[in-house]
Amino acid sequence: MSAQHTELELVAVTKRYGRTVAVDAISHRFNPSVYACLLGPSGCGKSSTLRMIAGHESISDGAILIGKKDVSRRPPAKRGTAMMFQNYALFPHLSVAENVAFSLRMKGEEKTARLKAAGEMLELVDLSHLSDRLPDQLSGGQQQRVALARALITRPQVLLLDEPLSALDPFLRIRMRGELKRLQRELGITFVHVTHGQDEALALADEIVVMNNAVIEQAGPAREVFDRPTTAFVARFLGSHNVIRLDLGSFALRADALALADSGQGQIEASITGVEYQGTHVSVTTRTSDDQEISVLLGDRDFFAKPRNPGESVGLTWDQETLHRLEG
After folding, report:
1. Is the residue at 71 inside a domain?
2. pLDDT tens digits, residue range 261-270?
3. CA 40 → CA 186, 194, 255, distances in Å?
4. pLDDT digit string (tens) for 221-251?
5. Is 110 found in the same domain as 254?
6. Alpha-carbon gap, residue 160 to 150, rounded angstroms
7. Nearest one of 192, 165, 186 to 176, comparing CA atoms
8. What is the C-alpha to C-alpha distance for residues 151 and 99, in angstroms, rounded to an integer?
9. How far is CA 199 from CA 75, 176, 178, 234, in A?
């Protein structure tokens, strides 16, 4: 499969269910051959957006462009997209190879050609040796790779992934993240991956689109969105940031940019309300006199060189350039 460098663009895309607006006039142009994550809490509109791109959900207003062509009214099979579902949706009575070849069978391709294509896809996801097995003879990770091969066999311009890692155990989830990233780079096609997991989005995405209440709150390169959140919601949702109120306004401040000092020695006075050991780091939760909760993430060596306990009064310190002003 060769890279196709196709651009995906959403133009004022809206989805209404009766009076409820699930997706509210969102516009975004995805860079060609990008790994993009739609990130947000449950009910924010990210899965509805993915289903509209796939054609499994009609759009109420707006347009979806793939390769600069409006595909909004085309059926799913005519859009140049393929979707990998959360539950994999494999046919239990078909072998791995037959599952992968299924969409070609629906298109009327003859058996030899479609099984050859399925063989190539199984090689791509490193499952050639299991081609004759039935789905229930596979592990969760193997089933996921079969679903991936089945989605890729149609040679889509855009691959859509709906929470594809949520059913896996944590260890396998991390392994499969690496597999998805490798495949996307190898194939050079656009992946759009829906998740509510911040770690997953940061690990995978070149580009993150953060959604909240049916709109896009912020979008851009993953590191930029993480380092420079524009709203309090994005700062909090991506994690590792505090949102703090100072005399000059509201600011985001990364937990690892703070340090603890003795009482009276910092920019803000606080008392420690919790200490959580996290292996390489220790997370210290504090509360200020004006009732703001501020987290401090310290390296384990730094913390244990001078341990602190709940109830202690401390000063919180930071370098001024690490403060990042938020909108509103």
Report:
1. no
2. 999 999 999 9
3. 27, 8, 21
4. 999 999 899 999 999 998 789 999 988 889 9
5. no
6. 12
7. 165
8. 10
9. 34, 13, 13, 14
Residues 210 and 253 in one domain: no
HEC states along 187-239?
Answer: HCCEEEEEECCHHHHHHHCCEEEEEECCEEEEEEEHHHHHHCCCCHHHHHHCC
Q: Are 40 and 237 in contact (CB under 8 A)?
A: yes
DSSP letter, residue 322:
G
Encode 64-100: b = buried (16+ Cβ within 10 Å), e = exposed. bebeeeebbeeeeeebbbbbbbeebebeeeebbbbbb
Total domains present in the chain: 2
What's the rounded Cα separation, in Å, for the pair 161 and 150? 13
**Enclosing domain of residue 260:** 242-325
pLDDT, one tens digit per residue, over 188-204 is: 999 999 999 899 999 99
Q: Does 309 lie in the same domain as 283?
A: yes
Identify whether 129 is part of a domain.
yes
Domain annotation covers residue 199: yes
Under a CB-based contact definition with an 8 Å cutoff, are residues 63 and 33 in contact? no
Beta strands 249-254; 324-325: pairing state:
antiparallel
